[in-house]
Every structure is written in C-alpha cells, then in structure tokens.
Amino acid sequence: MLYHLLYPLHGDFSFLYVFRFITFRTIYAAITALVICFWLGPWLIARLSRLQIGQSIRKLGPESHFKKEGTPTMGGTLILLAIVLPTLLWADLTNFYVWLCLFVTLGFGAVGFVDDYLKVKRRNSDGLKARKKMGWMLLIGFCASLALYSYPMFDSTLSIPFFKELRPDLGILYIPFAMLVMIGASNAVNLTDGLDGLAIGPMIIASGAYLIFAYLAGHARLSEYLQITSVPGAGELAVICGAMAGAGLGFLWFNSYPAQVFMGDVGSLSLGGALGTIAVVTKHEILLVIVGGIFVMEALSVIVQVASFRLFGKRVFRMAPIHHHYELKGWPEPKIIVRFWIISIILALVALSTLKLR
Q: pLDDT (tens digit, 9 = 90+) per residue, 261-282?
C-alpha cells in the first residue's frame, strides 16, 4: 500500500525513490511486524487469559508439561496479523506471488484456527478431525499449486542443489509436488511446536535464509551470476520473509521459556505453509529439507516411531516427536530448545553455501 501510494511521488520528492528497493521495504516490513507484536502482544495475552483460551495438554505427554495446562494459546493470530499487515503495507500488491503466499498462509491459518477453537471449546487436545483437517489443507494446496502451475511466467522445472545443469521438468506432476512441499512443511512445523520457542526459533532462521533466496531468485543479474533459476517477481517475497522474521522475533519475546502464550495450530500451520510456498516459488524446494532440517527431523521421528511400533511392536524413541525423547532422557527444556536453534543456524548456513557449490 505504501509502495503504491508513495513511490509514484518520487518525481516530486526524490527521497521517496527509496521505496523502489526491495531491501528497504523488507527491512521495514520486519520492523513493522516486530512493532505490531510488541504493541498488541500484551493485550492479546491478557484477552486470551480472560476468555480462558488455554492450552489443553495430552495426558500421554511428558509430566513436565502438565503445569503448562491453561497457558493462553492461539497466539498465532498475532503472528498472522504481524505478517499480513506489513506485507500489505510494504509489498508490491500487483505481484502474483505475494497474493499466492498470502492465500496459503491465511488458508492454512484458518484451518489451524478452527482446530484450536475446537480444542478450547471441548477442553481437550482433540480438535478438527484428521481427515477433515487434511482435506482442507489438500484443497488449499491444490488451488495454490494449480494457480502457480498455470501462471505464464512460472516453469515446472526442479532445481537440484549442487548441480547447475540438472533441472528436470516435472510438467503437470509439479502440482502434486508443490502440494507435498506446502502441506509437508506446514505439518512439520506443527509437529515441532511442542516446547516453548522451539518452533518459532528455527522458523525465524528459515525465514532469513529464504529472504536471501527470494531476493536472489528475483534479481536477474545475481541469479545469472550464481547460476540459479531466475524467477521474475519472486524477489517481492523477500518482503514477506522479512515480515515473517520480524513477527517471529516479536512472538518469541512472549513465547520464550517459560512461555506466556503458545502459537497453536493457527500459527504453526500458517507459518509452515508460507515457508513451503516461498520455497516452491523461489525454486529452492529441495533446499527446504536442509534449511528446515529441524522440522524434517521432527516429522521423520514421528513417522519412524509409528512405523516401527506398527510393524515390530517396538518404539525407536522414548516418545515422539523427538524433542520429547530428549525431555524423557532428562535434558532440561531450555537446553533442548537452544541446541535445536543452533542446529538450525548451522543447517541454514549449509544451505546458503550451496549457492556457490555448483
């Protein structure tokens, strides 16, 4: 909005020319998101407490979590607000990719909101039925992937890290592939959201990494120099990544151990969906496995645990997702959280290094 209102006036006021630069608008999208969280966070937490919108804890979970019963949840609504408003203020709203990302973010956020609402209403951890939840996510993912595949300026090739010439064209199979990335990322972030600040920390780091990927993919000269797939218009997603990072930092202020508020599914599903969509648009889908390695590890631990128990009647981990395994081994919660953050930083740096290792 500000871009459309102020940039056209740069002929009369030369200092407004700065609105042309994605870097400038990305920085201020992050700052705006941070300010929104700091401004509205205390009010939202107080409001959620008055309405008794508290977290329900699974009785099969670690005993240390029982004391968290009743902590305000659905704080992801603050994250969503702190992403959407700065994006509308600072992004180029004629950009197709911006609206596509907002569609997935808000769509998955709506599914998460209903899931959280039902948990609060029923006073237990049973929210939206898995079949309905996945059905809505598949529908949203399909619509977004079809729109992306049909967009004239987008191609269906797949970028393979470390190989500059290897770019297979998936054709129409790119639609289910893109759906897998979006929904897989969304659910992986959701599974990671089990300790105070555990999910939002790696999310901030991943947002920062994809901010760089988006900017480079949308920059014709830099993408040519680095020999990565050029995606005209994808640079505008850096503004959303900046808003995500700023919103994540602002939310972490209240979500750090011991948490004053939980993000709930409304936050985790929307953040994961946004990250998956940005990965698909920027043609760095496979690198999401590295950048979001913590999320992948958490999801795989659940898959391995379930498969092992059903096939062999044995558990690989003391409890899944894997962060609970380390809790039951006696690791203090803050130690698990910070160590997972450190791993996320290392993985993001490894992913960024692939830009030159081709």
A: 999 999 999 999 999 999 999 9
Stated pTM of the model: 0.93
Distance CA 358, CA 356 (A): 6
Residue 310 lies in a domain: yes
* Euclidean distance between CA atoms 235 and 101, whole angstroms: 13
Length of the chain: 358
Ranges of the chain whose pLDDT falls below 50: none
Residue 324: Cβ within 10 Å count = 21
> Burial code of 138-172, b = ≥16 C-beta within 10 A, e = fewer?
eebbbebbeebbeeeebebebbebeeeeeeeeeee
**The total number of structural domains that make up the chain:** 1
Q: Tell me whether residue 118 is in a domain.
A: yes
**What would the two tokens of residue 46 be?**
């107080």
In a domain, 358, yes or no: no
Q: How far is CA 213 from the centre of its chain?
A: 15
Phi and psi of 281, rounded to 5°? -65, -40
CB 197 within 8 A of CB 252: yes
**pLDDT value for 119:** 85
